[in-house]
Specification:
Length: 579
């Protein structure tokens, strides 16, 4: 785990190395100061030698100034190294997530990934800074102070060795008991983030159904779980302070008692006792800092494990050794395809799929909710891999293509249309970053979006809020269709992406497709018969299988499912208004 995280230090290695070096120099200066103070008291103040006092005083000031300088350098480099490490870690996680397949993303919830990119990385950043500073300072201070204390008086310094094991065992017991609690707490953080994201994303629905109390109650329950977890961990960690204080004051009492006897018997000088007491404080302070480092490491260990889990996750979709980079045409063939989201042949989402689509055909896909219409088309751009069988695009198995090259030729307008914060132009250019304004206008006319865009005061420079919240559902769908068309794909997949537009606009969009992109293979998933009845082929899906394939007239005559849907919609009028 440490080796994996250390890779993210990269260009900040120099700062990470210089931090402990300057910290060691700072500690060395601090440890020498009590020794100089002892000689100042014993040979200067006790004897009234002002010349000696001035000389020792100036040396003390010099060492104090050096300690301050080294400390400032150490702090500067530590801040640079820890902030840089955290920035690299965020980059590495985010970069790795971009390579995830849908299956990998399904493994981690979006709220969990957000927590790992924020709270967990902050914890690891703080721990890293403490490791390169305090985790170096404390042992070095402890070691050098012990050496100096034994040099001053070895007998009285043995008290340290008696107290150290007691303190070490206590700290180990605290770490052992607290770590599992923090693991549970950070997993609960994921749930909290999920509730917050879900609430903010669906705030209009929450308010329209007057369900604020339910959402507040849900938030408070999870927040209370986190409170209880941290409280439980805090109670156990709180034993750290009294344990440390008990050790410090026990040493102080023993040193004072034994030291007084040694001074009376002239086995120790006053200056030596003062320096020993100073070394006691330095040792105990270093132990106190070390215990704080331990607590921080307990917290960050759970976070580090969660971060490494994401870094170690590898996409199950990888390029072959010599990938095909040219997609010949938009023909699509399914050969005895079975598919399961969990690679479980006993729980198939699609089974026994055999299809042959000629390049340039318009294919309608219709079926009830849960009939796996979306699952079928997601196999074409290789968003998922088949469990068995094969999917061919342009006569080549999709697993033999370079993934990026394949997806460049397949444009998908998903069921849940997503627009990003930015202008309309910026959103459209996701389809082609080099597209001219003329090309933007052309595809928007095809998608029946130009008219409403022109009605905005800023036209194509109108700013779209996050998620497209400042445009209607129908407008959002048409912008997403225009964005997909800008790719000039060989295959265009519309996954129920005209459900929010009226039937007239839907007809105009399909008419534009037929006239302007006749060579593009078009898959239109729809709930409305009206949206697919002019297709060259219509696929009727039922329970993950193809129930029938044919034209509108053929299916109306021969397929019961299609006929029932058609007559139920005709009877109901099937008039959808733009939302």
């Amino acid at each position: 785990m440490i080796k994996k995280l250390a890779k993210s230090i990269r260009q900040y290695k120099k700062a990470a190395i210089l931090t402990p070096i300057f910290m060691i120099l700072e500690v060395a200066m601090e440890v020498i100061v009590p020794f100089l103070m002892a000689s100042l008291i014993d040979f200067g103040i006790s004897k009234g030698d002002m010349n000696y006092i001035w000389k020792r005083g100036l040396i003390l000031i010099l060492f104090a100034a050096l300690s301050l300088t080294f400390g400032a350098f150490s702090g500067t480099f530590a801040a640079r190294a820890s902030a840089g490490f955290a920035a690299n870690l965020r980059h590495d996680i985010f970069y790795n997530i971009q390579g995830f397949s849908f299956k990998n993303i399904d493994k981690f919830s979006s709220s969990s990934l957000v927590t790992r990119l924020t709270t967990d990385i902050t914890n690891v950043q703080n721990a890293f800074q403490m490791i390169i500073r305090q985790a170096v300072r404390s042992p070095v201070m402890l070691t050098l102070s012990l050496v100096m204390a034994f040099r001053v008086n070895s007998k009285i310094s043995l008290i340290f060795l008696a107290v150290a094991p007691f303190l070490g065992i206590g700290l180990f017991f605290i770490i052992y008991k607290v770590h599992p609690i923090f693991v549970r707490v950070f997993n609960t953080y994921d749930k909290l983030n999920n509730v917050v994201q879900e609430n903010l994303r669906g705030i209009r629905v929450v308010k329209s159904f007057v369900r604020e109390d339910l959402e507040i109650n849900k938030f408070e329950n999870i927040s209370n779980d986190i409170f209880k977890g941290f409280t439980k961990a805090g109670k156990r960690v709180s034993f750290n302070a009294p344990l440390l204080q008990f050790s410090i004051y026990s040493c102080m009492i023993l040193f004072s008692w034994i030291g007084a006897k040694l001074i009376v018997s002239r086995s120790m000088t006053t200056g030596e006792l003062m320096s020993i007491i100073t070394y006691i404080m330095q040792i105990m302070m270093s132990l106190n800092l070390l215990s704080m480092v331990f607590v921080m490491l307990i917290i960050s260990r759970a976070s580090a494990e969660r971060i490494v889990e994401v870094l170690d996750e590898k996409s199950d979709l990888v390029n072959p050794e010599n990938p095909v980079k040219n997609v010949k045409d938009g023909s699509v063939t399914f050969k005895n395809v079975d598919f399961s989201y969990f690679n479980n042949k006993e729980n198939l989402c699609l089974s026994e799929i055999d299809l042959n689509i000629t390049s340039g055909e318009t294919v309608g896909v219709i079926g009830g909710t849960g009939s796996s219409k979306t699952s079928l088309v997601q196999l074409i751009p290789r968003l998922y891999d088949v469990t068995s069988g094969s999917v061919l695009v342009g006569g080549v198995d999709v697993r033999d293509y370079d993934i990026e090259s394949l997806r460049d030729e397949v444009a998908v307008v998903l069921q849940k249309n997503v627009l990003f914060s930015g202008t309309i132009k910026e959103n459209l250019r996701w389809g082609n970053k080099d597209a001219t304004d003329g090309e933007l206008i052309h595809v928007c006319k095809l998608a029946q979006a130009h008219e409403f865009i022109s009605s905005f005061p800023n036209g194509y420079d109108t700013y779209i809020e996050q998620g497209g919240s400042n445009v209607s559902g129908g407008q959002r769908q048409r912008l997403c269709i225009a964005r997909a068309l800008l790719k000039k794909p060989k295959i265009l997949i519309l996954d129920d992406s005209t459900s929010a537009v009226d039937t007239r606009t839907d007809s105009l969009i399909r008419k534009a497709f037929k006239e302007d992109i006749p060579n593009t293979t078009k898959f239109i998933i729809a709930q409305r018969i009206h949206s697919v009845q002019d297709a060259d082929k219509i696929i009727v899906m039922d329970s993950g299988k193809i129930n029938a394939v044919g034209t509108h007239e053929e299916l109306l005559e021969n397929n019961q499912i299609y006929r029932e849907v058609y007559y139920s919609q005709m009877k109901g009028g099937d008039f959808d208004a733009e939302s």
